[in-house]
Amino acid sequence: MTKKLYLETVGCQMNVLDSELVVGSLRRQGYTLTQEATDADVILFNTCSVRQHAEDKIYSALGRLRHHKKRHPDTIVGVLGCMAQKDQELIRKRAPQVDIICGTGQLAQLPALIEEAKKTGKLQLALSLDRTESRHDVERSFESYDPLRDPSMRPSRFQAYVRIMIGCDKFCTYCIVPSVRGPEQSRPPEHIAAEVRQLAAEGCKEITLLGQTVNSYKFDYGDGRRVRLSELLTQIHDTAGLERIKFVTNFPKDMGDDLLDAVRELPKACPYLHVPAQSGCNEVLKRMKRLYTVEYYREMLLRCREKVPGVAVSSDFIVGFSGETEESFEKTCDLVRESGFKNSFIFKYSPRPGTKGHEMFADDVPEEVKKRRNNDLLAIQNAVSLADHRRHIGNTVEVLVEGPSKNANKRETASGPMQLTGRTPTDHIVVFDGNERLTGRTVEVIVDDATSFTLFGAVETDEFVGATGVANDEELTPIPVASRWSLPIV
Ligand code: 5AD
Ligand code: SF4
Q1: Which amino acid residue places its CA nearest to atom 2 of ligand 1?
Q2: Which of 78, 184, 449, 467 is the Cys-Cys partner for 169 at CB 3.0 to 4.6 Å?
Q3: 0.70 cut: is pTM over it?
Q4: Taking all residues of the chain, what is their mean pLDDT, rounded to a whole number?
């Protein structure tokens, strides 16, 4: 009898990748995925601690499972990832039915933990050291988890994440990541290159290199040689079959000219930079300990645009951080108005116990004010995004087709075109009509309309649209829908 696994993931791309690896390793133990928690032998939650809201979602999901676990005591319930690392005591108190609590650095142990929980019926704990211990010991306790991958478990066959570093040493005062993901550690370039080669050989066309501060990547060989992200991009660039390399997330202070030159010079390096500003006000940036001023950020933005013509830049902002006045908020609005960001992710400040911000500053901006600022900043960004998107109307853009768009089903016919979606090298989302068989292909699309979120267009040649107009059927076989995950990203 097959064993069934249910896995719910919240959070960032790092969590999506961790989940892919967890599923890969459990499939090798004979598990198959199910979409229904109540059908599963093992129910896992891969969690996020960046904001309270993400944690609340997991506690309510665990609450809903309480009865099910009572009636089916053999079902194993596990909490994985950032929340597990941060709050083992609280999880035990609020969800005593949980069998496994496993931190981000211990995921490789999961198959063994599941077996042990089944055998003993006892709670299994696997957590890394907290950052008060010696750096060497803490680093060792966050073992990197990049085992052999299972291509069928990726969100798409043509795209994959590749972790190039773990952890973070920046300690922005609002952020829990340095505690739950541990010290910054870069992977050896050879390991990354080998993984990229394997992915490309399996048909992967686009890889996204992941790091909390990906442009801080540095690998020291110990003999004076050091590889930075710019050189890593050069090293993996010529991988056969690979078409696109993206990388997220960048830290503004580490945006070196060498990296911008590499992005300009290397055809496969995508001209897309996610560089969160967080605030446009120096006092706030200082309290956040972001290590730069808004003047520096503006100059950096200019440098990005000068060095990489046509580059698209996106950002993150936190509104309502401790001590943010109307005046400070207005400065953030000014930055967004003039930035030309492709898009921004905007978050209301959520104080995180365990961070310096929580310890040192009061959460003194009322929820109503945070909400209003969030909406106001979003409206400004939407207008900026619309202007950015409209600039592409009339242009031909190169789109890596990801598959049918979410609203596609109504338009599907037996042989005719349906609505497809994909992304440009600048990470713009494009929706256009075409055959589902185009999934995984790179096509040229002429843009004829735009909203704040999407470009609309038509494929350049008819050759691609018709059901029989495609040269190589095998190459274009769409991936089964069941192997795509729907991931509730918070
Ligand atoms: N509250 C709100 N947003 C946060 N982020 C990180 N920590 C917090 C917090 N405590 C946001 C930042 C970061 C993004 C991933 O999440 O904008 O760039
Ligand atoms: Fe958090 Fe700052 Fe590190 Fe980003 S750079 S993960 S915001 S501490």
Answers
A1: 349
A2: 184
A3: yes
A4: 89
